[in-house]
Design a protein that fits this description.
The complex is a heterodimer of chains A (169) and B (125). With 169 residues, chain A is α/β, with parallel strands linked by helices. Chain A contains four helices and five strands. Helix content of chain B is 47%, strand content 10%. The chains are: A alpha/beta (169), B mainly alpha (125).
Chain lengths: 169, 125
């Protein structure tokens, strides 16, 4: 890629774009995105080669999707499932991603179960947990912080994870 | 998702987010973030490109191991389209005269469907 000069930042601002996009759809009130000044930080407590790693996705199993529900009114709940059950792919066509330019037919482009298993086999990590976890893309901060996040933490504690890789679509 | 990462960190569990919506993740504020500057959908690498997926997933592991302070962002070295890399950026969520009427109609339709769902009790309301 050649060097360049630009009047705008190169990467997409989804906050800016979505404000214009939904405004054009007749939603005059802009979405209130989460903003925090302070950020918590936890360090690994043991070498990575001894750590059990967990994965979190925003994708779901199709059977858990209520097909009759209208976008934005869904009834998804956080879940835990076996990684081995996800290898055939997960359902995310209801989520907002760039369907014109790419696809999600390759699981490891958004939930790198196979890649992490390879790292485990090489000894880079201790292991990948048998289960992975799903969390709804919920526009309610309240539901995410009070219901979903504590549930994912509970799953992580049940599976005695040492670190977590989260991959939003 | 970033809110979940923060919750885990607050409980003492190290996390790394791998994503393509840089502004959303960084505004929320997370401990470690691997930014893949791709269209939304493939934050851990292009379809079929195992080597790239391995590199990006490896970068997430590197951050778990080596980041020493919050808000550590690493950007992957990959570009989506070396020749026309701004095309997908400009196309996504585009609003201009070519689609303004259609977007307004889509919004009306969505609100009507949501109102129906609420009335029937099939949505969250």
């Amino acid at each position: 890629m050649a060097d360049d000069r630009r009047t705008h930042r190169s990467h997409v601002s989804y906050i800016d774009k979505s404000r214009g996009y939904y405004g054009a759809q007749g939603y005059p009130q802009a979405y209130q995105w989460a903003y925090h000044h302070d950020v918590p930080f936890a360090a690994l407590k043991k070498p990575l080669a001894k750590c059990r790693i967990g994965l979190v996705t925003t994708s779901f199993f199709e059977r858990n999707i209520n097909e009759t529900s209208v976008a934005g009114t869904g009834t998804k709940e956080p879940y835990a499932a076996l990684c081995s059950d996800a290898l055939g792919g997960l359902y995310n066509k209801d989520l907002f991603w760039d369907k014109d330019n790419t696809h999600t037919d390759d699981l490891d482009t958004y939930l790198p179960i196979n890649r992490l298993r390879e790292f485990a086999a090489q000894g880079r990590i201790g292991s990948l947990a048998d289960r992975f976890y799903g969390v709804p893309t919920d526009y309610s901060h309240r539901r995410t912080t009070r219901r979903d996040a504590p549930q994912i933490l509970e799953f992580a504690q049940q599976d005695e994870l040492d670190a977590v890789v989260l991959v939003p679509l | 998702m970033s809110l979940v990462a923060r919750h885990l960190e607050e409980a003492g569990l190290p996390t790394v987010v791998v994503g393509s919506a840089r502004d959303i993740v960084e505004e929320c504020g997370v401990s470690r973030f691997v930014f893949t500057d791709f269209p939304l959908g493939n934050p851990t690498g292009k379809p079929g490109d195992v080597e790239m997926q391995t590199t990006i997933t490896g970068m997430a592991l590197d951050l778990l191991e080596r980041a020493w302070q919050p808000r550590t962002t690493a950007q992957t070295p990959f570009v989506w389209d070396a020749d026309c890399n701004d095309d997908w950026r400009q196309h996504f969520m585009k609003v201009d005269d070519s689609n303004r009427t259609a977007l307004a109609a889509a919004g009306d339709e969505r609100r009507a469907a949501q109102a129906t769902a609420k009335a029937e009790g099939t949505g969250r309301g």
